[in-house]
């Protein structure tokens, strides 16, 4: 049977029960401390360069670039596919060194259009910008309301003096006419009451409401400056990570398309979509981790402004009610309007800005729940995974490694203590499988003009485990044979 017929005729349904929607958690949860340290050092260098360039009036230097990685078995090589803005994951014919890191976003390399650049506007974006704008609108309102209330207080003080002068003109009495004296006394009492009412209103505004509103004004201004100057709310790092993730998503879609076409043509797949998806999910996790950090910061900020608004609205309501208590001004409808405004202000704001605000009941995102192109493509799913012993080194001693079998026909080998990138990647459609009843099996690759013969000997902990692996591997290899004899 030809290679094309072997690959295309391979029954897909027999492996469905083994599929994982995502790569193994053992690989996704690996965190490379050295890579994190290198990224922090690179970002610090970039900040120094950016500061120096801005002082000199120069354009900002590139914040980061993408590098290629070399991850493969001796008989494979993955060549980087040209991209419009990024370099892509690649596999090489040589073993991966410990210093080589897949797709390190902090290592600047040359691509077809150069590294990504973020302008100053993007670097200055603030996660709490929607909250800052709301504070600013409240600040303008407080200034306007203080001005209005101060004018009311001034008019009340002026009216008080006017009523006092009017009272003085009606205070004299005529002893010859009792009726006139009674009328004058009534007018005097009325104008005196009006003067006292204006005095009480002016004092209440000046001594109670205006000081309280001035405090809200100061607090609002302080909150605005604090949010604008809070370095942790900057979106620069999140945008950088999102840019990297977007490039991986585009690369994954292209890799899936190329791999599917290669399989249909009966040729050898060069880029494994599963491996690209593994790197993508790691970058997606880094992006979501940064977003979750910002989202956690937003929760107390939202609670603070909600408390601020509630207290401010109570103070404003009390001031307005005090003014409305003048005869003929206060109405039940006016009070209802004020209460409705106070109760629905925040809810309306949240409904209009759901994308920018955080659900306080569920503030964090789960990166595995995020849908992206080709997430559920069969080529990115895991067929089988587990630990096996393999003969490695000059002495050919068995060493334990973690292995993943992918739908494209690759068997990736990872170190147990370093699962950032595979040590080797065996392309099974170019190999033969020998299986034994003694819990070991062998994968053989025929040599060529440029390559020598190569064999990989594996040992399992039980015959059942070996049967499972061999059953799955046989669906990808050129030929499968059973052997007997002593364990290798």
From TrEMBL:
Locate the compositionally biased regions of type Polar residues.
Answer: 95-105
- The segment annotated Disordered runs over 33-52, 79-112
Write out the biased-composition intervals (Basic and acidic residues). Answer: 43-52
**SMART domains the UniProt entry points to:** PH
Q: Name one Pfam family in it.
A: BAR_4
Does the keyword section mention GTP-binding?
no
The record lists the membrane-crossing segments as none
Q: Compositionally biased, Low complexity: which spans?
A: 79-94
**Which PANTHER family does the entry link to?**
CYTOSKELETAL SIGNALING PROTEIN SLM1 (PTHR31941)
Q: This protein is called what?
A: PH domain-containing protein
Gene source species: Helicostylum pulchrum
